[in-house]
Amino acid sequence: MPLEGLDGKAVVVSGIGPGLGRGIALQCAKAGADLVLAARTQARLDEIAEEVEKLGRRAVTVRTDITDEASCEHLAEASLEAFGRVDGLVNNAFSIPPMIDLADTSLAAIRTAFEVNVLAALRLTRLFAPALAEHRGSVVMINSSVLRHSRLTFGAYKMSKAALLALAQSLSTELGPAGIRVNTVAPGYIWADSLKWYFDFLAGERGVPAQQVYDETAATTDLRKLPEPDEIADAVVFLLSPLARAITGQCLDVNCGEWHH
């Protein structure tokens, strides 16, 4: 499906990886944007930058530790140096704390999750706000469907993601007068390499085909399928684009109907 709406715009994406990060970068490029790609692994950045450039768009890579103030300042400076403007910021980086009950989770692990999932997003948004205000730009926070349930072992992760949602809503109010929109996308399952590996593992444990694990999981969604990275990325492109020019402070769930909100 052809995309549009980001022609001539520059978008910064943190947390570039082989799954959703890659999907966001490529869908933004297909919509006409040039990209600044940020992550800790240079080889991964280079690989996805090459894919962006094959789509006819420019891609600048900046090796970044989003938990480090100086590293983030360098990212902001490099982005403006490369394109002279920033129209969109996608806070995609995340950290999953140990998947155990809250009563057994160390406070240090919870602090780490908050540092990456919440404070880093605030740090980057603060740094890019002046540039975003110049072009009435947009911020998209990547959240999770963990917002919609309280299953065992997800407590620490839900705490950090609920805080990220509150952050996005508060920033939408604070930055709105400057013309900056702040919204959230909350994916459920993401049918990418890590989930495929996990389903293969489960299938091996049970002695069944991996497709059976997929079908059983997909049966819990209204559309009987699991979202792919591009499908989630399209929601991000929409919120970055002028099509969403009157939308701010909102959370768009992309989960094929697994949860209703």
UniProtKB/TrEMBL annotation:
Pfam families: adh_short_C2. This is SDR family oxidoreductase. InterPro entries: NAD(P)-bd_dom_sf, SDR_fam. The lineage of its organism: Bacteria, Bacillati, Actinomycetota, Actinomycetes, Streptosporangiales.
